[in-house]
Amino acid sequence: MSDEKDATRIVSAGRRPEWTQGIVNPPVWRASTILYDLVAELRARGAGDTHHKLFYGRRGTPTQWSLAEALNELEPGAEGTLLYPSGVAAVTTALLAVLEPGDELLLVDSAYDPTRNFANGLLKRMGITTRYYDPLIGAGIAELCSERTRAIFLESPGSLTFEVQDIPAIVAVAKQRGITTMIDNTWATPLLLPTIALGVDYSILACTKYIVGHSDVMLGSVTAGPGQYGRLRSMTYQLGQHTSPDDAWLGARGLRTMAVRLRQHGAAALQIARWLETRPEVARVLHPALPGCPGHALFVRDFKGASGLFSFVLNGGDEAARAALIDGLAHFGIGFSWGGYESLALPIDPQRHRSATRWEAEGPVVRLQIGLEDPDDLIADLAAGLDRFAAARG
Ligand SMILES: *Cc1c(COP(=O)(O)O)cnc(C)c1O
Fold this sequence. Notes:
Elements: H1 6-12, H2 17-20, H3 39-47, H4 62-73, E1 80-84, H5 87-98, E2 104-108, H6 113-125, E3 129-133, E4 149-155, H7 167-177, E5 180-184, H8 189-192, E6 202-206, E7 220-224, H9 229-238, H10 245-255, H11 258-277, E8 282-286, H12 296-302, E9 309-314, H13 319-327, E10 332-333, E11 343-348, E12 365-369, H14 375-393
Parallel strand pairs: 2-3, 2-4, 4-5, 5-6, 10-11
Antiparallel strand pairs: 1-7, 6-7, 8-9, 9-12, 11-12
Helix pairs in contact: 4-10, 5-6, 5-9, 13-14
C-alpha cells in the first residue's frame, strides 16, 4: 500500500494496464461464456484459483475486478473486496458468510431497517438469534456477549438518528472473544472512515449512495480484513451473487470524483445543519459533527470528516405540518436513497425501527440529503419550508 493521499489514490486505483489496455476509465467487458482453446486449458483453469482470471461470466470480468480492487485500495490493510447487486445483498451475504444455526448476532438498534428485517426474517428461520444493542454501548457490549455470540454488526453513524459508535472499544471486546465484527460504512465511506484499519473484519458499503453518486445504479460491496476474505468469497459464489459489468463501470466512473463530491456534500450539509440549529421551528439537529449529537466526541476522534446526510427534529407539529414543509420544497426531491448530486428530503419515524432502546422526539423528523446545489439556495428553500410548517402547526 503506497502512502499517497486518498484523493490521489482514488483516481488511479484499480486501473491495471491489463484490464484497461490504456483506456482511462476501465471499459465494459460483458460476458457469460468464456471460450478455451483446448479441453486441457478449460480443466486447468477450473481446477486452479479463478481469482482475476476469465473463467465464466458469473465470476466477473476486468470491469468488476477493477472497481473491487479500487475499493480495496481505499481500505488500508484489507485482504479483498467483492461487489454485490445492491447494498442489501452486500449486508446479507456478509452475515451469511459468518453466521451458522445456533449462533447469536448482536445488531445495533439504529441499523438500517432492511438489515433488521433480514435478521428478523431469514436469520431467525435459520435458528440464528439477534440481540439489539444501544448504539452508545461502547465497551459495555462485553456484557451482552455469550458463548453463542458469533458476530457484532455496527452502523456508525446510524442513517436516521446519527449516533456515533465507539468502534475501537467494540472491536477490542470482539477480538478478545473471537467474535467477528462488521460495519455498514455507507455514510462515511472509506475516505472519511477506513474501518479495516480500525480492526473491523468486514466493511460494507451501499455503493448505490456515494460511490455511484448519480442516483442511477444499485450496487454494494464488502471489503474483508486480514484472514476474512476466503469465507466471504465462498458464500458469494455459493449464492451466485453477480454484479453487472455495466453497473460496475458506472460505479468506477462515479468513484473517481467521490473525494471532491464528498467534500462539497460535507461542507454544504454542515452549513445547513448549523443554520437549522438557529431556527425556532427546529428542536434538534442530528448531525455527528455538531457537539449535541450523541457520540460527537467519537466522531471527532475517529472520522476525517462528515458526508451530506443528516436529520432534524421539528418543534411540535404533526404529520400534516411536516408534509407542508416537505411538499413545497423546490430543490429537494421526495424519495428514498441518498448520495447523489441532488438534494432529498424524507419524512422519517425512527421510533418505529427500535426495539432495544427508546427514541423520543419533540416533533416529527425530517432527513435531508444535501446535494451539490448551492447551499444558499437550499437554505432559502428550507426557510420557506419552515414558514409553511409554522403556519400549518398554528
Ligand atoms: C441504502 C442503504 C443500504 C442498502 O443499499 P441498497 O443499495 O439500497 O440496497 C444499506 N445501508 C445503508 C445505511 C443505506 O443507507
